[in-house]
Amino acid sequence: MNINVAELLNGNYILLLFVVLALGLCLGKLRLGSIQLGNSIGVLVVSLLLGQQHFSINTDALNLGFMLFIFCVGVEAGPELFFPFFFRDGKNYLMLALVMVGQCAGDRLRVR
């Protein structure tokens, strides 16, 4: 039984998306001397390389991939960026989040 990986990946957009993520995370973890690319750059490099090989995904999978890429960037930058603000103004952010959830829930209930 022969499996053509190119046809398999071109036919299944979600599989291609998660293969790019997995390979990118592996590439991002590799260390060459004192240089390590990081998760976000690894995913970006793998997606560019596979794009050059004419792999493509539909719009829905593209949006999902973009959301996951932004998530990876946020996971890397989040602790250094948000924790100082959260410890200083955490109660204000919590109240803002609760107000937003309440507003969205109220709008959703009103629509029905």
From TrEMBL:
The way it spans or sits in the membrane comes to: Multi-pass membrane protein
Source organism superkingdom: Bacteria
Give a single Pfam family match: Asp-Al_Ex
Asked whether the keyword Transport is assigned, the reply is yes
UniProt key word Methyltransferase: no
Q: Which residues cross the membrane?
A: 12-30, 61-87
Query: Can you name a GO cellular component term?
Result: plasma membrane
Q: Where in the cell is it found?
A: Cell membrane
Q: Which family does it belong to?
A: Belongs to the AAE transporter (TC 2.A.81) family.
Protein name according to UniProt: Putative transport protein with two RCK domains
Source species taxonomy:
Bacteria, Pseudomonadati, Pseudomonadota, Gammaproteobacteria, Enterobacterales
